């Protein structure tokens, strides 16, 4: 036996499953990570009391200015991100919603991911050292470079490590600093041949850079459009594809001679 529903009651009854579905969706975990600007570190200076770059087997220079590597901070892989979190982040310029698989390797535990990121950093440091020594034609010399950076994983500091090594060993080649005394930040992977690669999260990294005093930001050329999307005022973008190109751009910026590429 069926009773006839009035229109308002029928609408209410039909709406209940929809409301329940939306409520479930609002609190259900989604396959995303939320990211925000992270720390920056001057690779020409110290981190937790130890020099970031230590070189033996060759004379080094006293440097001025800063070369700041940049990071983003993402929610841990075991933290649930809900629809409400995503909507909140969507309307903020200092937050980004990223597919979790683009931030963390899928199918791995938190411990395995930490080990993976540590290994990525180690490989990046080795490549950065080799790239810098190759650039300076010092590969076959008995030079030892030690890189230390606590609590940071992944390969995105490679370019800045290489530039820091070059600045400590050679500077601009004419007795001056590669930085020109400026605070310069940037990001980018690097391989042993000096090729710079994309990293992701550059719009957040530019915010971290400007927050910490940078006026120039070195960005992988393929990520220029992303870096320009939320570019803070007072921060100049310089696109790079190789270590050699990055060094040349900084030398031109310091001397005022030659062209400095722009996004």
Automatic annotation (TrEMBL):
A GO biological process this protein is involved in?
A: proteolysis
What Pfam family does this protein match (any one)? Lon_C
Q: Where is the Lon proteolytic domain?
A: 153-236
- Keyword Signal applies: yes
Recorded superkingdom: Bacteria
Signal peptide boundaries: 1-28
Could you tell me the keywords of this UniProt record?
Signal
Give a GO molecular function annotation for the protein: serine-type endopeptidase activity
List the protein's name.
Lon proteolytic domain-containing protein
What organism is listed for this UniProt entry? Streptomyces curacoi
């Amino acid at each position: 036996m069926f009773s006839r529903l009035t229109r308002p009651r029928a609408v209410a009854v039909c709406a209940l499953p929809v409301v329940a579905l939306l409520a479930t969706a609002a609190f259900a975990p989604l396959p995303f990570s939320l990211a925000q600007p992270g720390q920056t570190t001057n690779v020409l200076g110290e981190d937790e009391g130890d020099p970031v770059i230590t070189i033996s087997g060759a004379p080094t220079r006293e440097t001025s200015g800063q070369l700041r590597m940049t990071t983003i901070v993402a929610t841990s892989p075991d933290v649930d991100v809900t629809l409400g979190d995503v909507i909140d982040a969507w309307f903020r310029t200092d937050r980004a919603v990223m597919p979790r698989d683009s931030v963390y390797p899928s199918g791995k535990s938190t411990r395995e991911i930490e080990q993976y990121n540590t290994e990525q950093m180690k490989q990046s440091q080795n490549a950065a050292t080799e790239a810098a020594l190759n650039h300076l034609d010092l590969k076959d010399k008995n030079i030892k470079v030690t890189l230390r950076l606590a609590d940071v994983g992944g390969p995105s500091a490679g370019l800045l490590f290489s530039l820091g090594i070059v600045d400590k060993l050679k500077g601009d080649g004419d007795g001056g600093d590669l930085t020109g005394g400026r605070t310069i930040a940037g990001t980018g992977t690097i391989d042993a041949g000096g090729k710079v690669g994309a990293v992701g999260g550059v719009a957040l990294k530019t915010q971290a850079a400007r927050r910490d005093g940078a006026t120039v930001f070195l960005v992988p050329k393929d990520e220029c459009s992303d870096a320009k999307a939320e570019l803070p005022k007072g921060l100049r973008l310089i696109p790079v594809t190789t270590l050699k190109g990055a060094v040349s751009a900084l030398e031109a910026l310091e001397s005022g001679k030659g062209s400095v590429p722009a996004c």
